[in-house]
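REVIEWER CHECKLIST
Item 1: Sequence provided? yes
Item 2: Single chain? yes
Item 3: Sequence as submitted:
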Amino acid sequence: MRFDKKVISKLLIISSLLLGSVSSIASPAIANAATAADPITATTTATPEDTTNTDPKTSTVTVQILSGILTLDKVPDFNFGAVVLGKTTNLKSNSVTDVPDDFATSGKAGVDGSSDGMVKITESRSNSNTGATPGFTLSASISPLYPYDTTANPITGNIMTLNSVPLVDSDNNNISTSSKDLMTSKAAISDTDTGSSSLMDLAAGSYRMGTIEAKWQNPGDATMFVNGTNGGGSASEAKAKKYNAVITWTLTAKPSVTTTTK
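Item 4: Structure as written out by the authors:
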């Protein structure tokens, strides 16, 4: 399986393939013979004991091999413009400029974001028996807001909310294989969360192969709450300062495995 590029600064793409082996173990009984002789009158010989054999038991693991690739090709930047501490602000644009040069090397800025406002995934894998797409998940996490002015403190406790948007192909048609359109999951992503927030969790066969896009481009598609009451910086300190956060996008492939036992 091939992945085209690293996404943001910490993109993790996990592809799982479960392989199994079949083994059986037989444990035959061993017949022992013992003899004893009388040196004066007679010789006696012990006969072999009866043996019992047990049939081995087996189980089977069947793996459906997937062909093709799953790649995360594009992820969006977000610009929320001027915000009020303690308030929620709608998305302004997907264009981000004037980020300090050292932010990328220090891990305080993403390196793969685009101004298109979309996540773009290419799915060309299929189950070798059924031809169905095998499924995948996409999640995201966010860092604290880092100040451009390095003398200021980061702001923590912020929440970026990505609202539900359609999952479409390159022709803007929904990718669902049923009459019900597929959408992303609404996700509230905070730097205080220990894990990632799920945006997509597509089951095997529920979507069509090809390009998959989710677009957060309109003001109501995304919002940002900036915390103004935590120790990461006072309201006066944060006034008129620029901040940047890093979003890490994680694409995880689902394996296609069928297991039978006896």
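Item 5: Key structural point noted by reviewer: The radius of gyration is 30 Å.
Item 6: Recommendation: ____
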